[in-house]
Design goal:
The complex is a heterodimer. By secondary structure, chain A is an all-beta fold. Helices cover about 0% and strands about 50% of the residues of chain A. Chain B is built from no helices and eleven strands. Classes of the chains: A mainly beta, B mainly beta.
Chain lengths: ~120, ~110
C-alpha cells in the first residue's frame, strides 16, 4: 500500500514569493492534516480536513496561508507571500478516522527555505 | 489546553545500554497517546497507540507504557539503528481527532 505522498521534497524561494505544496493521502483515508515542524520541535497542526471540509483551521495564518482539498482526496497548501519565518518542514498526514485506528500516517514532508 | 512535554531533550546511550524516555501530558479526557519515530529528513513513523492507563505495547526492542499522567518508551539493549527522534502525541476528546505533539527526545546510540 502506498504511503502519503508529498511534493516537492525541497523548495527554496525568496521572501514575498508564493509557494505551494501538494499531498496525496493514503487511499481510503478521509481525514487529512497539514502540519508545520520547526527545527527541534514537534509538528504543529495547521489545518484538518474531513473529506473535502476544513473542520479545524484555527491555527492556519489565514492572511497568507490557504489550503484546499478538492474532491476529498489530494490537497494543496499555499503560502502567499512567504516570509522568512515560514522556513520549516511542512508535513501532510492522513488517518482513516475509524474508532479502531486514530493513528496518523505522515508523508516525508517538504522542507521550505525562505531567503 | 492539552500539553505534552518530553524528557530528556537528548539522550546518548552505548549500544546495549537500556533506558527510558518520558512523555508527560495534560489532557482533558485522553482518547489516545501515540509514539512516533522520526529519522532526519523524514516524516514521523507510527510506532504505538495506547488508550488507557496500565496498557503496554511492544515492538522489537521498544516497549511503551501508559499511566494517567505520563507514558514511557523503554528501549532494551538498543542498537545504533535505533538512533532517531522519538515523538509523543496525545489526542483528547475535546479536539476531535487533533494531535498535540511533544518536542521529542533525540536518541543517539553509539556502537
Amino acid at each position: 500500500e502506498a504511503g502519503v505522498v508529498q511534493s516537492p521534497r525541497y523548495k527554496i524561494i525568496e521572501k514575498k514569493q508564493p509557494v505551494a505544496f501538494w499531498c496525496n493521502p493514503i487511499s481510503g483515508h478521509n481525514t487529512l492534516y497539514w502540519y508545520r515542524q520547526n527545527l527541534g520541535q514537534g509538528p504543529e497542526l495547521l489545518i484538518r480536513y474531513e473529506n473535502e471540509e476544513a473542520v479545524d483551521d484555527s491555527q492556519l495564518p489565514k492572511d497568507r496561508f490557504s489550503a484546499e482539498r478538492l474532491k476529498g482526496v489530494d490537497s494543496t497548501l499555499k503560502i502567499q507571500p512567504a516570509e522568512l519565518g515560514d522556513s520549516a518542514v511542512y508535513l501532510c498526514a492522513s488517518s482513516s478516522g475509524l474508532r479502531s485506528s486514530y493513528e496518523q500516517y505522515f508523508g516525508p514532508g517538504t522542507r521550505l527555505t525562505v531567503t | 489546553e492539552d500539553q505534552v512535554t518530553q524528557s530528556p531533550e537528548a539522550l546518548r546511550l552505548q549500544e546495549g545500554e537500556s533506558s527510558s524516555l518520558n512523555c508527560s501530558y495534560t489532557v482533558s479526557g485522553l482518547r489516545g497517546l501515540f509514539w512516533y519515530r522520526q529519522d532526519p529528513g523524514k516524516g514521523p513513523e507510527f510506532l504505538f497507540t495506547l488508550y488507557s492507563a496500565g496498557e503496554e505495547k511492544e515492538k522489537e526492542r521498544l516497549k511503551a507504557t501508559l499511566t494517567k499522567k505520563e507514558s514511557f518508551l523503554h528501549i532494551t539493549a538498543p542498537k545504533p539503528e535505533d538512533s532517531a527522534t522519538y515523538l509523543c502525541a496525545v489526542q483528547g476528546w475535546n479536539y476531535g481527532q487533533n494531535f498535540v505533539f511533544g518536542p521529542g527526545t533525540r536518541l543517539s546510540v553509539l556502537p
